[in-house]
Specification:
By secondary structure, the protein is mainly alpha-helical. It contains 20 helices and no strands. The mean pLDDT is 85.
């Protein structure tokens, strides 16, 4: 499969993609080849002036790459803004921009974000399947196919910060399902916040159901975290108020009216969320996953409340794939010969149809502008592109 991708990238990606969805015994290797092939396509992304990545490129041109320590002091103490970008609010992404400016090219950053995005989704679903004692190929194909179409590649290539952030949250959610919510899970939320401050929303929403958890350890954990946060809030009150004011300004920018076309898209997404909500409420009796399911209920309710606002689009970009990760784990834990329940068929099919619809109808968010003709990218052997790749990197 890897050899086919090297000789003909288009054929390799197509064949590995089909096997990723329908060959449950392919293990991680086929999925990795498929994801790397998509990352290779992302390498040819050519940002336009209206893209977020164009602003990041301008930002990188102002970075002094002589010392990472000096750069961190500059963004955290002196603070500077370029084209409205201020990395003091997202130092993790700022460090990535520094490393890209010093050692690489924006193409590596964009392609890397695309690879991480697909890995955090496809590998978590496959991990859920492989950890199940009783495996069922139909369930695997349904959930993997649904997860595959939850990504709009163009948005990932352009806005890497947001997708690195929610990808980190998804990986943390995967481990939470496996081992329960523990203190170390909070580090995934902290890391996600360094990539994009909007991850604070999901952090707060995750803590809310823990206050009423029937698990004593979870309640003690959330009370301890709340106490520590309160103490830090008193000590650094001025700075925290300033940061929260700045972040709220950005948040309220997304609380605005939307076009009729976007409202229709939001309502379709909302219908899928309602289906998921109904299934989750019925599944809450499974004590093993109750804490995570309560979190999902809170997420969905908040999303539905925001359906008429622009911020809904951002929220649902995390909620739907997160739902697939959680529900696929519950589905795979069923007996292999057990008949598919209605929700096991209805939800992945609904998510799949929604994803395909968005990939086709909202093609301006899925198909990125590229530097070469698509036929040349898909049909030219990778080893024949070596001189071109080396040229654009230098």
């Amino acid at each position: 499969m890897l050899l086919i991708t090297f000789v003909c990238p288009g054929l390799g990606i197509l064949s590995s993609g089909i096997l990723t969805v329908f060959w449950s015994k392919g293990r991680f290797l086929v999925v990795i080849v498929f994801i790397l092939g998509l990352g290779y396509l992302g390498f040819f992304y050519e940002p336009r002036t209206i893209d977020d990545m164009w602003r990041y490129i301008q930002y990188m041109s102002y970075i002094d790459t002589s010392s990472l320590k000096d750069f961190l002091r500059q963004i955290l103490v002196e603070r500077f803004s370029v084209h409205g970008l201020d990395s003091s609010q997202w130092p993790g992404s700022g460090v990535l921009l520094y490393l890209t400016a010093k050692y690489g090219n924006y193409r590596i950053l964009s392609a890397g974000a695309l690879i991480v995005t697909y890995c955090s989704r496809l590998l978590t679903v496959q991990g859920n399947y492989l950890s199940a004692q009783r495996q069922n190929n139909v369930r695997y194909s349904l959930w993997m196919g649904a997860m595959l179409v939850t990504v709009l590649p163009y948005l990932v290539l352009s806005g890497f910060r947001w997708y690195l952030s929610i990808s980190t949250l998804m990986v943390g959610l995967y481990f939470e399902i496996k081992h329960g919510f523990r203190l170390r899970n909070l580090w995934f939320y902290v890391l996600a916040t360094t990539f994009h401050p909007a991850a604070l929303i999901f952090t707060a929403l995750r803590l809310i159901p823990l206050f009423v958890s029937k698990n004593k350890n979870e309640r003690v954990l959330v009370y301890t975290v709340t106490l520590i946060a309160t103490v830090i809030g008193f000590i650094e009150s001025n700075r925290i108020i300033h940061e929260l004011t700045s972040l709220s300004t950005h948040f309220w920018a997304y609380i605005r009216s939307i076009s009729t076309m976007q409202l229709i898209d939001n309502l379709i997404n909302c219908a899928v969320l309602i289906l998921i909500l109904i299934a989750v409420i019925q599944l809450r009796k499974q004590y093993q996953y109750r804490s995570t399911l309560n979190y999902l209920i809170v997420l969905i309710i908040v999303d539905i409340v925001m359906v008429t606002f622009d911020v809904f689009t951002r929220l649902v970009q995390y909620t739907i794939p997160a739902s697939v990760i959680i529900l696929s784990q519950i589905s795979f834990s069923s007996h292999a010969n057990e008949k598919l329940k209605v929700w096991e068929l209805l939800i992945p099919v609904a998510v799949f149809l929604l994803g395909v619809l968005e990939l086709i109808v909202i093609s301006y968010q899925s198909i990125p502008p590229v530097s070469l003709a698509w036929k040349d990218i898909l049909l030219t052997p990778i080893f024949n592109m070596q001189s071109w790749i080396w040229g654009v990197l230098h």
